[in-house]
Design a protein that fits this description.
The chain has helices at 4-25, 30-36, 40-43, 258-264, 268-273, and strands at residues 45-57, 62-73, 79-83, 89-95, 98-99, 101-105, 108-112, 122-131, 144-149, 155-160, 182-189, 194-196, 200-207, 210-217, 229-231, 233-242, 245-254. By secondary structure, it is an alpha+beta fold. Strand 4 and strand 5 form a beta hairpin. The mean pLDDT is 91.
Length: 274
């Protein structure tokens, strides 16, 4: 009779062999290198804040907007790498009052700055973009933008990009070694819809294009966690007695799910206390 240790060694060997076979089968490309390498064009600057303004058009599945990126200079250098996935496109990169020149290499954009970058400085650029982003075929397993409808036929829009990366819909420094310390997200949506996102809702304004929802996150956040949810949402509130005083709770649910959510979310308070 064979001992359990022999079976364990056999399983371990088989697993290692399968990993080696998978590694051999994978052919790494130039695009993989640009996406995964923390290169000189990435390592010299530290993202501090994204001020992201974006509108979603469900009629033609398009996105447009701009992202002001505040960053700290870690080392003097003049070229930075931004990431935005095809078929999305950058229209312009503004530094101060000047347009910057860039070279595009697939999904990577290498931007040449005008200003001399001095160690310790806080600088910014503004990146204007537009396009029809990759559509998620089978979210969340397949990444991209989700253009869907609720049971009543109202538009429901969101993004599944943890595996694909946030560059699928907005320009950013898309690498795991850096994330924004904070983020302001302004989303324009049709006036009959609601946008829910990370952090706290700071304001709702109206313009000719629709309703502009401003959500603010004051903690560090991964790029792929900056996600808007656009739909026919309703809100209800509650209060949790925390260790240092009352904490407010905000719940946002699709209109048709309001009754079920009021019952289901009774679990929230005991979960948080636990």
């Amino acid at each position: 009779m064979r001992s359990p240790g022999i079976y364990f060694l056999y399983i371990l060997f088989s697993f290692a062999l399968s990993l080696e076979t998978s590694a051999q089968a994978k052919k790494y490309t130039h695009a993989d290198t640009l996406k995964g390498t923390y290169s000189k064009q990435r390592s010299w600057w530290d993202v501090l804040h994204y001020d992201l303004h974006v509108s979603f058009n469900a009629t033609d599945s398009s996105v447009k907007g701009y992202n002001r990126i505040d960053y700290k200079v870690l080392e003097p250098y003049g070229v930075l790498q931004l990431d935005l996935m095809e078929p999305m496109s950058i229209d312009s990169v503004i530094e101060g009052k000047s347009r910057c020149y860039w070279i595009r290499d697939g999904n990577s954009w290498f931007v040449s700055l005008h200003k001399e970058q001095m160690r310790g400085e806080i600088n910014n650029i503004t990146v204007f973009f537009h396009g029809k982003p990759h559509v998620a075929v089978m979210p969340p397993w397949d990444g991209g933008v989700i253009w869907s409808k609720d049971p009543k036929g109202n538009p429901w829009i969101s993004i599944a990009c943890q595996g694909m990366a946030a560059q699928v819909w907005f320009p950013n420094k898309d690498h795991m070694l850096d994330e924004a310390d904070s983020c302001d997200l302004y989303v324009t949506c049709p006036k009959n819809l609601i946008t829910v996102s990370n952090g706290r809702l700071k304001s709702i304004d109206m313009n000719d294009q629709g309703s502009v929802f401003h959500w603010k996150t004051v903690s560090p956040i991964n790029n792929y966690n900056i996600i808007p949810y656009i739909g026919k949402y309703v809100n209800f509130k509650d209060t949790l007695q925390g260790e240092n005083g009352p904490l407010d709770l905000d719940f946002w649910v699709l209109e048709d799910n309001f009754g079920k959510a009021k019952k289901q979310f009774q679990q929230v308070k005991p979960m948080i206390h636990c």
